[in-house]
Amino acid sequence: MRDNILSLSLFLSLSLSLSLSLKGGLQSGKPQLSVIIPSAAFSGAVISFVLCSSELVKCRMQVQGTDSLVPKSARYDGPLDCALKTLRTEGVTGIFRGGFTTLLRESIGNAVFFTTYEHVRYYMHLKMKDASPNQSNLVDVGVGIMSGGLSGIAFWSVVLPLDVAKTIIQTSTDRGSTRNPFQILKSIHVRSGLKGCYTGLGPTIVRAFPANAAAIVTWELAVKIMGIKRE
After folding, report:
1. Which of 14, 115, 158, 220 to pair with 21, CA 20 to 30 A apart?
2. Contact, 87 vs 95, CB < 8 A?
3. Which CA distances in Å does 37 have to 33, 88, 196?
4. Contact 51, 106 (CB under 8 A)
5. C-alpha 200, offset from chain centre
6. Geometric angle at alpha carbon 10, from 8 and 11, rounded to 5°
7. Using an 8 Å Cβ cutoff, are 213 and 143 in contact?
8. Per-domain residue ranges of the chain
9. For residue 193, how many other CB atoms are within 10 A of its CB?
10. What angle do CA 152, 156, 158 make, to 5 degrees?
11. What does the pLDDT profile of the chain (231 residues) look like in tens digits?
12. How far is CA 10 from CA 14, 16, 40, 152, 179, in A?
């Protein structure tokens, strides 16, 4: 799961920067899907190269818990040891195992995230345009919480199956196993149905709302402090 604060911070900073720069500046007026989706998807593709290797290390560290079936001789001493051993035994392609699935998850997820974010933000501000100037800061925080939280939920509601497939690809001990996420999801669906493809949805959604709400509120506050006006 893409759940550590570093990944979230990097995701938001790079995604928002690329998304806004590709749009030629901060968007004003009604959100335009023809602009949001391509720019957000591109930023997701870029950040997937950063996330892939770090998430591979994280996933492999998580599955080797003390109660796992991983023999002690094959366990990693830490994240650095995991990365070095992966590079030594599997090469550069090994450390980027699951890269295609990560790219799909981030590109599709980013498009969903920013489409939701821009529209929720736009319509909430439209409804609150008559609010007192003295309440502007409170309104901004409220809008940030809702737009960020709902965007995070939308992101994971759409791409969680890809994340499930990515985790299987990155933690598989069989080097000859398929890296095709669609084949993996088809196999899961045959065994466990749609529920299997959405393993962990509940905790992910519960975590997604506050984490993304906090990140968006912080970013919106930073934009305001820098004097960048958004309509």
Report:
1. 158
2. yes
3. 6, 38, 28
4. yes
5. 15
6. 60
7. no
8. 1-28, 31-226
9. 10
10. 120
11. 454 344 455 556 655 666 566 555 555 568 888 778 888 888 888 888 888 999 999 998 888 865 555 666 667 888 999 999 999 989 999 999 999 999 999 999 989 998 999 899 999 988 877 666 666 778 888 999 999 999 999 999 999 999 999 999 999 878 788 999 999 999 999 999 999 999 999 999 999 999 999 988 888 887 788 776 665
12. 6, 10, 14, 15, 26
For 218, other C-beta atoms within 10 Å of its C-beta total 14
- C-alpha 44/C-alpha 185 separation (Å) is 22
CATH number of 31-226: 1.50.40.10
Place of tokens 């991983």: 70
- pTM (predicted TM-score): 0.83
C-alpha torsion angle, residues 108, 53, 217, 212 (rounded to 10): 60
Question: Which residues fall within 8 angstroms of residue 218, CB to CB, at 6 or more apart?
Answer: none
3-state SS of the chain?
CCCCHHHHHHHHHHHHHHHHHHCCCCCCCCCCHHHHHHHHHHHHHHHHHHHHHHHHHHHHHHCCCCCCCCCHHHCCCCHHHHHHHHHHHHHHHHHCCCHHHHHHHHHHHHHHHHHHHHHHHHHHHHHCCCCCHHHHHHHHHHHHHHHHHHHHHHHHHHHHHHHHHHHHHHHCCCCCCCCCHHHHHHHHHHHHHHHHHCCCHHHHHHHHHHHHHHHHHHHHHHHHHCCCCCC
- CA-closest candidate to residue 172, choices 118, 101, 84: 101
